[in-house]
Structures are given as C-alpha cells and as structure tokens.
Write a structure and sequence with these properties.
Peroxisomal Thiolase, Chain A, domain 1; globular; single chain; binds acetyl coenzyme *A; 332 residues; five-stranded mixed β-sheet; four-stranded mixed β-sheet
Length: 332
C-alpha cells in the first residue's frame, strides 16, 4: 500500500445468488459421484446455478444495487466500477461496462480484472489506490461468476466443485486507523497451466486435456492446486500482517476464498489458530471463484461474526496461479 493520510474502508456490501440449487444428490444423477465423496473431500453440499438466460452481469448488477442501498449511495455517486470475473458475459464490452449500464452508474469508469479466484482481493488492492491517491472518492468492486457455463458437466473431477453468484462492496475514505491496513498480491505464471480455460488460442497440450467438442471448458489438476493453496494461504496472510505490524493472534476472523474446507483445515493447522477463526460457507455455494470472498464477507458480517474494531483478513488464491490477501480493521 502507498503511504497516504487517507484511510480506505468498506462502506456498503451486497450479494446476489441464482435461485436454482443443485445438490450433491442432483449431481449423483448426472455423473459418477456421491454426496459422501463431495462432502468429505470438499465440504460442499450444494451450489447455486444460473439459468440459461442469466448472465454474470445480472448477478453482479443485483449485488451492486444492494451494496448501493447498504451504503446509502446513488448510482451516480460511483466513480469507478471494477469487476473481478473469469466468466465475463462477453470478451467485450467488459462486464463492468455492462453492469455500469444496468445499475445506471453513468459517471463511473469501468473495467474488468482477470485474476480468477484472487480477483476480488486484486480488485480491492487496485481500487484502494485510487482513493488513497485522491483520484476517486467512491469505487465499487464486484466479484461475479457463472462458472456453470464453463464446466464440462461430464467431468466429475471439476463439475462438483463450482457454483455461481456475485458479491459487491463499495470503498470510500473512512475514519483514521480503520479500513484496509495492508494488501498483498502475487502471481506465479510458471505454474499456471494446472488450472486452465482456453479462449481464443488453444495449444496442442490444452486441446489434449479436453474432449474435442468441449475445448473451452475448465480443466484442473486438483492436487497441484491443492498443494499450492495450502502453502500460499499461510504465506499471503503472514505477508499482509507483517506489512501492518500485526500478528496472527491479533486476527479476529479470516474470510478465505471458499475452494475446499480441507484447505482451510490445513491453513488453521499451519497458522496454529482455532478452525473457528476461519469463516466457511462453502457447504451452501461451492467455489464461486472471484465472488466467494465478497459473498463470505457479507454473510460473516450479517451473521454478527464481524464487529466494529475487529481485525479481518481476506485471502484468495487460484488460477494464474495468483494469490492475494488483505488486512482490514472493520469500520462499520
Ligand atoms: N466423485 C467421486 N470420485 C471422484 C470425484 C467425484 N466427484 N472426483 C474425483 N474422484 C476420484 C478420482 O478419480 C480418484 O479416484 P482413483 O483414486 O480411483 O484414481 C479419487 O477420487 C481421488 O481423486 P483426487 O483428485 O486425488 O482427490 P483429491 O482428494 O485431491 O480431491 C479436489 C480433489 C477436491 C479437486 C482437490 O484436489 C482440491 O480441492 N483441489 C484444489 C482445488 C482448488 O482449490 N481450486 C481453487 C482455485 S479454483 C480457480 O481459481 C478457478
């Protein structure tokens, strides 16, 4: 974070989820899997799935409207919209531009960020700079995904893991000592091919991972991503805490990217903290990629698990490979 006399914090939050629920038992009828395997290996019981005529921007816009209401702001108050998504409606216009129109934020600049499951923390970091420098006053960050549209629904090793939804937050200047205390983002492109979705170019090696008729679907080496995740979660949290001179014992709640409960069990062990200090709602939604942290943050706050003055750590990891963490002194 740059040095600034300003403090930036979250002043409004909202989420939106598809109505359609797909349970593990529903999946049993679609692929060779079972509720017991999915629950014990991941912690997921069900996930939300978008309808055919529902797009990432629909959930993003609905979450954005709720965040505006929560903050007591109007669409015209927004200076910039950043959408973190790996499942944009279109290559262009960006999903941020589509949402800008849907919510009537006529004054706002708008762009998307591509950092998969780390996208929300990347977005928070970028957005924070605009306010710290005084360039903008009010920035909205939306994590929104419809992974159901890029899955191979015949591949049991991936289709059981993901879900759809969106979460939005609004950042503004907050009182001194509160808000985002530090962020830490990083990438290791050299290991990126363990989690891929081809777009305009499909190399021979990427083509060979998929069925000929499903070349643009998600492919993952789950074990490689798992090993990366357990290592990077500890690293990213420690780096962000060190940057603001805090220790792990100062943290009241960690709100991680919801990819797998076993990754969080391992993080609790490695960080030597009680498991209850790591929030989880993966059982209801699965992995919603860039949307998972803002959805989890919203729910943790709504359930009274986050109070004013609490030290909260957000941590994300995913395709790229990328990671990101943020330490927040809660200001609401
Ligand atoms: N149902 C039943 N059996 C299954 C299923 C399924 N849905 N999927 C795989 N299996 C089988 C495998 O075929 C294998 O069988 P075998 O032993 O006969 O070969 C066995 O279960 C074990 O498979 P593994 O892949 O070794 O299972 P693992 O314990 O590693 O769990 C999982 C797989 C859940 C994917 C795990 O590796 C994981 O969570 N990885 C991390 C994923 C992640 O964090 N992604 C985040 C980033 S997402 C993003 O950025 C978009």
């Amino acid at each position: 974070m740059i040095q600034s006399s300003r403090n930036v914090g979250i002043v409004g939050m909202g989420i939106s989820l598809p109505e359609k629920i797909l349970t593990n038992f529903d999946l049993e009828k679609m692929v060779d899997t079972n509720d017991e395997w999915i629950k014990t290996r991941t912690g997921i019981s069900e996930r939300r799935v978008a309808g055919e005529n529902e797009a990432t921007s629909d959930f993003g816009a609905a979450a954005a409207k709720k965040a505006l209401e929560d903050a007591g702001l109007l669409p015209e108050d927004i200076d910039l919209i950043i959408v973190a998504t790996a499942t944009p409606d279109m290559y262009f216009p960006s999903t941020a531009c589509i949402i800008q129109d849907k919510i009537g934020a006529k004054r706002a600049a708008a762009f998307d960020i591509s950092a998969a499951c780390s996208g929300f923390v990347y977005g928070l970091t970028v957005a924070g700079q605009f306010i710290l420098t005084g360039y903008y006053k009010t920035v909205m960050i939306i994590g929104a995904e419809t992974f159901s549209k890029i899955l191979d629904w015949e591949d049991r090793s991936t289709c059981v893991l993901f879900g759809d939804g969106a979460g939005a937050v609004i950042l503004r200047e907050v009182q001194s000592g509160y808000g985002i205390l530090s962020t830490n983002i990083g990438a290791k492109g050299a290991d990126g091919m363990c989690l891929t979705v081809p777009a305009c170019y499909i190399s021979e090696s990427e083509a060979s991972k998929r069925k000929p008729e499903k070349q643009n679907t998600l492919w993952m080496n789950g074990q490689d991503v798992f090993k990366f995740a357990v290592r990077i979660v500890k690293h990213a949290i420690k780096e962000a805490l060190e940057d603001c001179n805090l220790k792990i014992d100062d943290v009241d709640l960690i709100v991680p990217h919801q990819a797998n409960d076993r990754i969080m069990d391992s993080a609790a062990e490695r960080l030597k903290i009680p498991r209850e200090k790591i929030f989880s709602n993966i059982h209801k939604y699965g992995n919603t990629s860039a949307a998972s942290i803002p959805i989890a943050l919203y729910e943790a706050y709504s359930e009274g698990k986050i109070k004013k003055d609490d030290i909260i750590v957000l941590v994300g990891f995913g395709a790229g490979l990328t990671w990101g963490s943020a330490v927040i002194k809660w200001n609401r």
